[in-house]
Amino acid sequence: MLDYIRAEGYKVSRRAYPYVTLLVLLAGAALLISGWVFTNSHGNDVDFASGGGMAVMLLSVGLYAPVLIGDMVFSEQYKNNTLKNEVSYGLPRARIYLGKLAVAAVLGILMSLAVLVFYEGMCWLTLLPGEPGNAAKALEMVIYCTLAALPQWLGMLGVSIMAYFLVRSSTVAAILIVLILVVPQNALKLLGLLVHPAFGNAAAFMPSAMVEAAQTAVGDGRFLALSWGLGAAWLVGATVVGLVLFRRKEIN
User: Fold this and answer.
1) What is the CA radius of gyration of the chain?
2) CB burial readout 28-66, b (16+ within 10 A) else e
3) How far is the C-alpha of 114 from the C-alpha of 66, rounded, in Å?
4) Residue 215 has what DSSP assignment?
5) In angstroms, rounded to a whole number, what is the distance separating the alpha carbons of residues 113 and 205?
6) Quick check: 151 and 205 in contact, CB under 8 A?
7) Which residues lie closer than 8 Å to 31 by C-beta, 6 or more apart?
């Protein structure tokens, strides 16, 4: 397994895809910060607490990142017939599936940390310092919300890998991932309005809702444990379904 993970990691590292994506994300962060620096030079007052703390508002957007991460690792294997070659070579399907999932998780976490550290570091260096107490609270909020968002992100990564393995078209797989993220939560909200409030309450435990709610639960260990439990359920559930169906799937 480790040899396969290393091989997959090396393959991804040789592609321009992750580096270009990372550069675009870093450029976007730099552009946002430079805009605040410009307005500060003209009398505005965006300090580190305001700018650095805004990272928590972007964490929900990160739930869509597994669409790209899964694509980076899976790399159009049905289109290029490389998955068929791996299976024909005799590699166990579980090793192929779990190996790619592991590489995707490591790649996604590293890219997320790179963007977060860059963003917070640039905010600290370029924005007005503000009150030390407010800056510490903002940083605490960012760390807590990131820890609460990470399991939800990993859960959606499990869904992403499942979709890319089971659907031959990468475009259709990407659409399916987004639908799984968006439709159940909105459907539960609608059912909560039309049928029974219990459905609306259930919507609060969906990935996007959990990430958004983290801002109001900073310091709550129970909420953090709940988030990790739900994220693990998404990850394990999607992985089990993906493995079972991939074992039965005919690779042409």
Assistant:
1) 20
2) ebeebbeebbeebeeeeebbbbbbbbbbbeebbebbbbb
3) 16
4) G
5) 25
6) no
7) none
Cα 47 to Cα 69: distance, rounded to the nearest angstrom: 32
Q: Give the separation between CA 112 and CA 7, rounded to whole angstroms.
A: 22
Q: Where are the alpha helices (DSSP H) in 127-169?
A: 132-166
Look at residue 107 and give its three-state secondary structure.
Answer: helix
Q: Which of 28, 107, 14, 10 is nearest to 66 (CA)?
A: 107
CA distance 61 to 29: 14
Distance in angstroms (rounded) separating the CA atoms of residues 195 and 190: 8
Indicate the domain borders of the chain.
2-247
Mean pLDDT per block of 10 residues along the chain (252 residues) reads 86 92 94 88 80 87 92 86 80 90 95 94 83 85 95 96 93 94 91 86 92 91 96 96 90 73
